[in-house]
Amino acid sequence: MPSIRIPYTSPFPVPRVIPPSAQELPGAIAALTEFLTSAKTTGSKRGTVCLTGAGISVASGLNDYRGIAGAYIVNKSFRPIYYNEFLDGHAFRKRYWARSYVGWPGLRAKGPNSVHHLIKRLGELEIFRSVITQNVDSFHQIHPSLPTVELHGFLRSAICITCGTYHPRDEFQDQLSALNPAWADFVNQMIASGAISTEDPTIQKDRGLRTNPDGDIDIPGASYSTFRYPACPTCLRKPPTLPNGQQGRIDIDQDGAWLESSDAGILKPAVVMFGEGIKTEVKDAAEAAIDGADRVLVIGSSLATYSAWRLAKRAVDMGMPLGILNLGGTRGEEAFFERISGEGKERTSVRINLDAAEVLPPVVKAIESQRSGKN
Ligand SMILES: [Zn+2]
After folding, report:
1. Where does CATH 3.40.50.1220 sit in the chain?
2. CA distance 32 to 323
């Protein structure tokens, strides 16, 4: 069965705290250190798989749009685009790419924060053996030697729906600038005014900018109908064969913009949109990461997406210890912890309702000093 990305808008349970001493920072540090260092090395199962979500990118200036109560706190009227809308609608795509065009420079200017660096360090210490992330910001690229599955894809590329070729988002951005000079002027003004780079939503709102975590910005009153986007360069060079055996048709205007008379060569962001299936190889890689680990630590995720929740459930179903380090409730946590806690199982789960940026630095220090004491 394909894994489809669907939004989850129900309220989350009240976060648990396990063990009770993890209510305060020192107890949380001790509990997480023990959880991470007591992973077994038996057979092929080794170490911890780290599952991350939007919560760890907040400190990079990306909004965690669900917030701790699970509501859309940044922009209540924001509704993500669905895959079928993107696929079927030229107008939807114009709107999507216009907003994405304005949002990209701000996202591009942001980068990994201390939590990403600590995850990298835990990889070097061989505590983490792999990472599964729901984030599309590519910040986990700072640890290329720690294998990372990007469950929901990534914004750094556009992908052709017809031929599957990836194209760098930066080059695509330049093409959008060339095709939409008035928008390019607007974006340059916004960059100059600091509206795009600021993390202060009040300043952004003063300039009519509202952001959401997909790197997308709302411009109230702006018309998207004249926005132009390019066709896939690969399909343009060599018209593709469609699933029905016919040759795909790609029409462009005098500047190279995709025209509605085409039936191929549409570029989409290389993220898994809502309503879109996760690629089989990505789903398999994520499951293999879980199956090959001894335990799972969730950091900065409410597990709101089914695909991520399902991976945590998979681990619990296999009897693996589960840790959750997340500020705010996490989908299904009551059921998870009821099953793995209880008499004699105290050390098999950790639930910390604190900020990872606060808890992880002393945990990494503690593990480092344990290691140097042994050497
Ligand atoms: Zn193509």
Report:
1. 20-61+112-152+277-374
2. 8
The answer to whether residue 152 is catalytic is yes
**Å from CA of 192 to ligand 1 middle:** 35
Distance 270 CA to ligand 1 centre (A): 13
Residue 50 counted as an annotated binding residue: no
In this structure, which topology does domain 20-61+112-152+277-374 adopt according to CATH?
Answer: Rossmann fold (3.40.50)
pTM of the model: 0.88
Neighbouring C-alpha atoms within 13 Å toward the C-beta of 128: 26
Tell me if 232 is assigned to a ligand binding site: yes
Q: Chain centroid to CA 338: how far?
A: 28
User: pLDDT tens digits for 279-297?
Assistant: 999 999 999 999 999 999 9
CA 327 – ligand 1 centroid, Å? 42
SS percent in the chain: helix, strand, coil, step 5: 40, 15, 40
Does residue 56 contact residue 299 with C-beta atoms inside 8 Å? Answer: yes
